[in-house]
Design a protein that fits this description.
Blueprint (H helix, E strand, L loop, with lengths): L18 H12 L14 E6 L11 H13 L2 E6 L12 E4 L8 H11 L3 E3 L2 H8 L1 H10 L7 E4 L4 H8 L3 E9 L2 E6 L2 H12 L5 E5 L5 E8 L2 E9 L8 E2 L7 E2 L2 E4 L6 H12 L5 E9 L2 E9 L14 H22 L3
Parallel strand pairs: 1-2, 1-3, 3-4
Antiparallel strand pairs: 5-8, 6-7, 6-8, 9-10, 9-14, 10-13, 11-12, 14-15
Helix pairs in contact: 2-9
């Protein structure tokens, strides 16, 4: 025999001659009479890690995913890597850890919402994705809470002159859903500004314009559960003003990632990162900051931050992965207590 296709069907589609057999076997299965293969190891929880195998710049490399799985194993959490095709099986797990770049109009957001609706422990949760991927909302939120940011103007078709007067040149333009240097450009003069803004506004009702703050590196502070997880300096790509110069192809140039012990980072950077991240929630965030003339500015807060083996973990090592899985474990235990019958 060879299986050519497999698809789910409704109960009404079961051929009449087969119905007694289906009912009998279903009753037998749920009565517990069907012997199950013994597991070589008993796990306390099951955690799905969502990845996108086609992604050019994923948030975690393969070595990091393996280290996450190893840390989970030590805490008796079984991990399984899933992809965009596995949405229908999400309820089989206790938790979901998204390790694919998130966006609202994207399968990652659908997974996050479905998992949250099923009661799973989810990182990144839907609220964090909504808040962090909308750079317009983020800029307004940070400003409202008096967190220092580069001078910013929210642009639409009728106020393009405002940014010219308020910010001057060079100037940074961002799409509302930009991420990790993609959808972010620097314009040098008014002509380039108006051309780029008009092009962007064909696809988006709003844009973010920010003053250009040149620095040799950005501070990246990883925050998990309202605590600092890791700190790194993200150096600019050689001869470029961003960390990444390119689209992920072979010609793309990257700046260096320099992990820093949290105690060696400026206290003002850590304090500002925590203040900004805590406005998003208690998930996993990467806060980008610039320090210029002793002043700290929050550039943005990202959900789903990069965590690559050999880069962000150079200082924290295996303990960094253990802390992530320990956070999942604590939340999974709380979930179990809440759902346990009285």
């Amino acid at each position: 025999w060879e299986v050519r296709s497999l698809r789910p069907i409704g109960a009404r589609e079961i051929p009449e001659p087969h119905r007694p057999f289906v009912v009998q076997q279903t009753q037998r299965y749920f009565s517990g009479k069907v012997p199950r293969r013994p597991s070589p190891h008993t796990y306390r929880f099951d955690l799905a890690m969502l990845v996108d195998p086609t992604e050019v710049l994923p948030p975690s490399n393969d070595r990091a995913l393996r280290r996450l799985a190893e840390a989970a194993e030590e805490l008796e959490i079984r991990t399984e890597t899933i992809t965009r095709d596995d949405l229908g099986s999400i309820a089989e797990f206790d938790g979901l850890f998204i390790r694919a770049t998130t966006s609202v109009n994207h399968f990652t957001f659908r997974f996050s919402r479905r998992a949250a609706a099923e009661g799973l422990v989810v990182i990144d949760d839907p609220e964090s994705i909504l808040r962090c991927t909308n750079k317009v909302f983020l800029a307004e939120l940070l400003t409202r809470h008096k967190i220092p940011v580069p001078r910013t103007v929210i642009l639409h078709r009728d106020n393009l002159d405002q940014a010219v007067q308020a910010l001057g040149f060079p100037m940074i333009l961002k799409l509302p859903d930009s991420s990790f240097s993609q959808g972010v450009v620097k314009v040098q003069d008014e002509s380039a500004y108006r051309e780029r803004a008009r092009n962007y506004l064909e696809d988006s009702d709003l844009l973010i314009a920010q003053e250009f703050l040149p620095t040799d590196f950005d501070w990246r502070v990883g925050v998990l559960n309202r605590e600092v997880l890791f700190v790194a300096r993200y150096h600019m790509a050689k001869g470029h003003w961003q960390i990444i110069h390119g689209d992920g192809s072979a010609a793309t140039r990257y700046g260096g990632v320099e992990a820093v012990a949290p105690e060696d980072a400026p206290a003002s950077v850590l304090a500002m990162a925590l203040k900004a991240a805590n406005l998003m929630g208690d998930g996993f965030y990467g806060v980008d900051l610039k320090m210029q003339d002793g002043h700290v500015f929050v550039v943005e807060v990202n959900d789903n931050p990069n965590l690559d083996a050999g880069y962000e973990d150079r200082v924290g090592g295996k303990e960094l992965y253990r802390k992530i899985m320990a956070t999942f474990l604590a939340r999974l235990e709380v979930r179990r207590e809440r759902t346990a019958p009285a």
